[in-house]
Specification:
Blueprint lengths: L1 H7 L15 H12 L5 E11 L4 E12 L2 E5 L3 E5 L3 E6 L4 E6 L10 H4 L7 E12 L2 E10 L7 E9 L5 E8 L4 E10 L20 E4 L3
Parallel strand pairs: 6-12
Antiparallel strand pairs: 1-2, 1-11, 2-3, 3-4, 4-5, 5-6, 7-8, 8-9, 9-10, 10-11
């Protein structure tokens, strides 16, 4: 779930732009500029994991809240909080929460704060397809490849950008284990100011929870 939390937030870059862009650099520059103006983000999404090795194909629905370097992810049986320094991973099945320092659990991934500008640092990008169809929507397909893939849990990320609305409508993450994680955005809001208390685990709301603190 730590990697999921890190990957989740790239699917939330559904930014409405007013002008057309023809190159990957133009599109990504506009996405970054738009993201920097958002005080907070809330979104519902679906994620699908396809793993050829196991034959598994699982889809889950979730929601996320983001504010600066802070985020909260809710995927039903799993919930994740981060205040930008600490990460709490809650597992409903055994009523336990694991606490880690954010810096210790990135595992070659990235957190939501980096999502909005991640392509600006140590990434190569290019236009893979200037006219691809996604559920009836004409899109650009932009490929992202880390300059140092050995230190990442993935090797390629595909962004699908609606050519008319200039919004990211789908994200595909290709992992080093040959699995694909696909994220689709259901809604995207930036008008609500999320309080900081939403990004820390509140033990009082989880009676008898087992606390596993890896920071000690």
């Amino acid at each position: 779930m730590k990697k999921i939390s890190a990957l989740i937030v790239l699917a939330l870059c559904s930014f409405v732009l007013t002008t057309q862009a023809q190159t990957s650099k133009e599109i990504l520059d506009k996405l970054s500029a738009k993201a920097k103006n958002f005080k907070s983000i809330t979104s519902d999404f679906s994620s699908t994991l396809n793993n050829p090795k196991t034959g598994g194909n699982q889809t889950h629905n979730g929601s996320v809240k983001i504010k600066g370097s802070k985020y909260y992810v809710n995927m039903g049986d799993y919930q994740i909080w981060s205040d930008g320094t600490t990460v709490w991973n809650y597992n409903k099945s055994d009523n336990s929460v694991t606490i880690d320092n954010l810096a210790d659990v990135k595992d070659g991934g990235f957190d939501p704060a980096e999502m909005f500008t991640i392509w600006e640092k140590n990434f190569k990008h290019d236009m893979r397809n200037a006219n691809v169809n996604v559920d009836g929507v004409n899109c650009y397909q932009i490929g992202l490849n880390p300059n140092d893939p050995k230190n990442k849990s993935y090797h390629t990320i595909f962004l699908y950008v609606d050519k008319t609305k200039m919004e990211v409508v789908k994200v595909e993450v290709k992992t080093r284990e040959n699995a694909t994680i696909t994220y689709k955005i259901k809604n995207f809001k930036t008008t609500t100011d999320v309080p900081d208390t939403e990004f820390t685990f509140n033990k009082s709301k989880f009676p008898n929870v087992e606390v596993i603190d890896n920071r000690i």
